Amino acid sequence: MSDSAHLIAGKRLGLLTNHTGIDRQGRRDADVLLTARGARLVVLFSPEHGFRGTEDRAGLPDSRDSATGLPIYSLYGGSRSAARSALDSIDVLLIDLQDIGARFYTYIATATQLMRDAARAGKRVIVLDRPDPIGGREVQGNVRARLGSPDSELVGFLPVPMRHGMTLGELARMANDIMAIGADLIVVPAAGWTRTMFYDETGLPWVKPSPNMPDLESALSYPGLCLFEGTNLSVGRGTSVAFQVLGAPWLDPAKVIDRLRASPVAGVEVTPTEFMPVAPTDGKYAGVPLRGVQIRVRDRGRYDPTKLAVALLAALRAVHPDQFQFRAASFDRLATGPELRTALEAGRSPEEIWTGWEQDLARFRGTREKYLIY
Fold first, then answer.
1. What value does the mean pLDDT of the chain take?
2. Which residue has the higher pLDDT, 59 or 283?
3. Which residues of 129-149 are buried (b: 16+ CB within 10 A; e: fewer)?
4. How far is CA 45 from the centre of its chain?
5. H-assigned helices in the chain
6. Helical pair 305-319 and 253-260, crossing angle rounded to 10 deg
7. What is the DSSP letter of 44?
8. What SS3 class is residue 175?
9. Are the beta carbons of 57 and 245 closer than 8 angstroms?
10. Model-level pTM greater than 0.90?
């Protein structure tokens, strides 16, 4: 509003956002835009978890914002035809969502779907960019080999690694190019952010981007530990430390930690813990006391959560060969193919698996350069 208000002057606006769309004072962007002189907000769109960010289920219906009276078209279960028709009533589509910096988050897929619809309707798209919470320097993990579809593959359709080191605006620039969407796309940068900055260095208030992302500590490990959603271990959903713990009733923390020493990962401490999920949205071990391990990041600059995840997977298979299980369809979807799972099942070492990523990561670093803003 301070440096780019001319982009919306005299325009009818649509806004794709959720509870993360706030300013430094905590004011909702929908409310701020309603007071903008010369512009008129007429319609809202929402992604996974809904406009208020509290839902952790599929099939969210269209609704109405009680504060403004504006219609909210849910792009995660609402009427897609109604959402497309709503674009006819606007001149400019604004997108303001806080991404998490990991391939698994669905917000970029939803943003790309709507950007494509806006392009077909001849509407300009403006992304109001926000920082990558876990920094924009490191790229880590396996790289998706091919471009997917944002319609059928909400989780990680772009050919990026698990930790991509890009903002939502940069990802939108990539999607617009490699998918040949042809959107009239403008990204308003997050003023003052640099690629070396983590979220707690921005001075901005932390707002959970999704119900199970309680703080930056969880976000730092999420690019790796999300893989465990495709196993029979709890990732701490239903606790205050989701994606900071892993556990199961049969897990022997001491043996797993001892096994981890064979493939050490820098910058992180793994210790025994106990926890009990309460009404976890993944349905794993509700009300059951679990033994597990807790992950504490000690050096952000050296920590690679994707390497830790592979080392933990290998350790768990070695220590608990009869109890540990992959949920193959889910795991392969997160890993963008069966290669990681089959490598672990074949007994390949974590170091061998990590080394196999290096060439793809080097190519990705070169590819992403043309889309970077900061």
1. 96
2. 283
3. bbbbbbbbebbbbbbbeeebe
4. 18
5. 29-34, 80-86, 107-120, 168-178, 216-225, 253-260, 305-319, 328-334, 339-345, 350-355, 358-368
6. 120
7. E
8. helix
9. no
10. yes
Question: Are the C-beta atoms of 200 and 191 separated by less than 8 Å?
Answer: no
Side chain identity at residue 192, one-letter code: G
29 phi and psi angles, rounded to 5 deg: -65, -30
Residue 311 token pair: 């080392």
Pair type for strands 140-143 and 161-163: antiparallel
- Sequence-distant (≥ 6) Cβ neighbours of residue 224 within 8 angstroms: 140, 141, 162, 163, 304, 305, 306, 307, 308, 309, 310
Token readout for 139 is 């790229």
Strand-pair category, 185-188 with 124-128: parallel
Query: Tens digits of per-residue pLDDT, 304-325?
Result: 999 999 999 999 999 999 999 9
Q: How far apart are CA 97 and CA 150, in angstroms?
A: 16
Contact 309, 341 (CB under 8 A): no
What the block records as the tokens of 340 is 């990681």
Q: Which residues, 6 or more positions from 203, have their beta carbon under 8 angstroms from its beta carbon?
A: 24
